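Repro:
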Amino acid sequence: MYTFASSFYRRIFLLVGMMVNLLSAVQAQDTIIQSGPVKFTKHIVSRTFISEGVAVGDVNKDGITDILAGNYWFAGPAFRPTMLHTDTLTQVPGYSTSFLNFCMDVNNDGWPDLIRFDVPGSTCAWYENPKNKKLLWPSHLILSTAGNETPAVEDVNKDGRMDIICNDTLAKQVIWLQAPTGKKDTVWQRHIISNNSGLATNRYTHGLGWGDINKDGLEDVLIKHGWWQSPADVTTPNWTFHPANFGEDCANMFVMDVDKDGDQDVLSSSAHDYGIWWYEQQQDAQSNTNWLTHTISTLFSESHALALQDIDGDGQPDLITGKRYFAHNGGDRGGYDPAVLYWYQYIPGTTPQWIPYQIDNNSGIGNRFIVEDIDKDGLMDIVISNKKGVFFFQQIK
C-alpha cells in the first residue's frame, strides 16, 4: 500500500543512489609518483568536496580498510561510496560542516562508528554503524559546543579507549571527554583540564597537542601558549599550567626529542600562514626553561594538519603535511597556490635535518588526514579529504 512514509524513504534512497553515482563518476585514472626515496600511487577516490576531515576503519567487517569522510564511507579496496548521513554538501568556496572525522567503536558492539566534529564551537556527534544494514547511520550528540580547530582523540586515562580533548566554547573550559566503556554505554564523562576562561577557550582556538613534555611518564596537553601538566589521576580538575611560547596559530602539536639531547621538544605547523617549526627546549643558568624556535620549512602556507610517522621505514619519524586548500577561501597568504602534499625526512642529530619531498601538487590536506598502513603491506599510506576531494596515496615498492 502506498503511504507517505514509503514515499519519503523511497525519495531518500533515490537521493542516496544519485549521490553515490555522482561520487563514483568522478574517479580518475591512478598516477604513480616518485617522492624522494619512496613511491606512491595516487588514487582519486572522489573529486567532490565532502569533508575537511577523514577517518579509516573496517566499516563492513570484511577485513579490508575503508574510508570515512563526512556523509559517506567508501568500501575498500575499490572505494565505492555509500551515504551514511544526508547533510547538504558544501560548495567551494565555503566551509564544510564536517571539520574532522575519527573512527572508533563508541558503543562497544564490535562495529566501528564515526565521530564527527562540525564547525568549531558547534556539534560533536557520533554516528552509529548499522551493521551492514542498508540504513542511514543514527546520530548521537556528544557535545553541542565543541571548540578548537584541532581537537584530539587520545587515550587519556590509559584504559584502551580513545577519549576526546577539546574546549567547551559555552562553558569556557578546556576539557577531556572519557569514552564509554561498557556495552550499550554511550555516556561520555566530562573532566575539566582548565577553568581559565581566557586560555584556549575560543571556538576557533588553533593548536592542540598531547605528549610527555617533562618526561614523567604522563602525557600532557599542549597549546601554543604553554602546556597543562597531567596529574597522576587524570580525572583531577584544573591541571597545572606552564606558560611557554610555542609560536603562532598552529594545528597538531607533537612532542619528541628532536635534537637528541635528552629533553623533549615540540613540533607544529602554521594553520593559515607560512611555517613548520620545532621548538628546542633549553635551560638557562637559573634552570628556567626557554624554547628556541627553529624553522623547518616555509615552502607553502596553510599547513592546517600535521602528522608524525615513519614514511620511509628507516625507524625515524618523519613529518607529513601540505596545504589545506582554500582554508579561508583564498583569504590567507598563498591561498591560491597549488594544493601540495609533502613529507619531510627526519635525519636525527644535534643539528637535525628535515629534507622536503613533494608527493603531489593537486590534493593538499584537510583539517585531519590519515597516515597509516591501509593495505597492510608494511608501508605507510596517506588518506586525505578536503575541498579538492578524497584521495588515497598508496605507498608502493
